[in-house]
Fold:
Amino acid sequence: MNRSLDVSLAQLDVAPLAPAENGARMLEIATAEARAGAGLIVFPELCNTGYVEPLAPGQGYPSGSASHADYARRLHAAAAAPDDDLIQALAAQAERYRCHLVAGLAMRSASRPGVLYNASLLLGPDGQRACYAKAHLWHNEKLFFSPGRSLPVSDIGAARLGMQVCYDIRFPEITRCLALAGAELVTNVWASFRHAEEPVEDDGLFRHRAYTRAQENGVFFLSCNRVGRQGDMRFMGRSLVARPDGRILAALDHEKPGVLRTSLDLDEVATYRMSTGILNDRRPELYRPLADPEPLP
Structure:
């Protein structure tokens, strides 16, 4: 019997520091997609707070914050506590419709006051939860977030799922570790942007990256990016799903709000891995000395 999973990737706009507004939109989409039969619904990076400001070094504060300290205070207030209303509401939808949700959220530490994570949160039926904190922080993210220290892989019934966030994709070790831990599909949630007045340099950027990580590891790679404008920057959308051999299964070739829906034939994972030997042919004894960090001089 073939294993399959219907997935929905929500490519939505996000308002800066407006968790109630953003959360209401997330719940609306989650409900509609779950009712339509989606077994996994994915939302982009930092969709409760919007991307951190300044978005790039030297930029201002589109949210109207008066200073770095003012923005930091407002970001902390907008970030989700582990048991806040949005997470409870999303968890209730996952339970009601027997589905799983992956959401990119700014999250407060449960044990350390004032510590935030750029997180990807998995919610499922029966109260299942897993949280991945972004390991590789981009530019100004380092001013606000602490990097993660673990790579969870979770059983979501139909398959095993691993998570990463945006910039993590440039570090192939992340996807490889998830695959070695049993992941058959990997979600990457993005808030990838460019200057609003500049053309897109490479329409295939997200395809290239997803293709590479998928075929290196024999995983379905789900790439969900946000859209909209924040200050001088425009988010690039182009959400997609790559098959284990790298071929693109489905894609949104635009930067407008929308939902990408497709179905994964999960047996493709084993078929690709067996036909290529992609995991069996590894030579970790050769890589290990190079992967160990050099001692500082």
